[in-house]
Amino acid sequence: MYTVNLVREPDRHDRQVRAFGRDGQNQLRAATVAVVGAGGIGSLIIQGLAHLGIGRLIIMDPDQVEPTNLNRLAGATPTDARNGTSKTEIAARAVRRIAPDIPVQTSRASVLDTEAWLSLRCADLIFGAVDGHAPRWALNAMAVQYARPYIDTGAEITRSGDGSLDVSGHVATVAPGGPCLLCLSGYDPSTASMELDPALTAAKRSAGYLRDAPDEPTPSVIFLNQTIAGIALGEALNLLTGWHHPRPYTLIDLSSPSLTPIDAERDFDCPACGPDSLRAEGDSAPPPHFSVPSPPPQP
Ligand SMILES: [Zn+2]
């Protein structure tokens, strides 16, 4: 679904043009950006892109709002939680309020769906604000096959053995020619395969190989998401305007607090982006199918 309004106030970006120049603003204006995942981090990224004056947005998320999302989902209201409004609609509504001239395409498909995955080809830059390894696998495959810049984000709040609370996150930037998300250890292919196969996951869990509770909500707070979204938006500005060289990885630790940029090189034997991959093959290679066969039933 597209929403378009062609009015744009002439001075609304004056203060950032003073930082990044008219050329930088034109780069933003010309870009189509996809945000996959319109939850805690994705909703903040989307609102940031609207304020920055991005040219066109693609928003993809299959989920609807739940009451426990309201502590961090930017733009969501208690009425949305009662009505089960889709996260894509909340994001699109926020963009309409901030910058009604930005065309927004929304999709409630999963990025693991082949048609949805292919729809990301028209983006100049892709944000991933997703949970799990399988969606990251899919987004990395898009970034590699179509040479699209891809920014992966993630948050983690855990309690250490000594009782201290770790509040951390990351922003990983996959630039064409640079290390891919697998080179950066941004996902685990075997875990991704397992996520795509619920029967195998259930079998491993019942056998005691998996200890985590699959439906247990994980902790999440808006101030961590805001930090991650801010770093990610800065990386997007780097990629679109050439502000500075992209940083492959930034580790965010709000317990210290600290930001740690981590440099990384491509792994030239990487199964995702190495010689045996579909690197930059685009439409000349078939799209991947993100499903694996279920194991045969046990006797
Ligand atoms: Zn790689």
Automatic annotation (TrEMBL):
Residues 13-260 form the THIF-type NAD/FAD binding fold domain. Residues 285-299 have a biased composition (Pro residues). It comes from the Bacteria. Pfam families: ThiF. Residues 266-299 are annotated as: Disordered. InterPro entries: ThiF/MoeB/HesA (IPR045886), ThiF_NAD_FAD-bd (IPR000594), Ubiquitin-activating_enz (IPR035985). This is THIF-type NAD/FAD binding fold domain-containing protein.
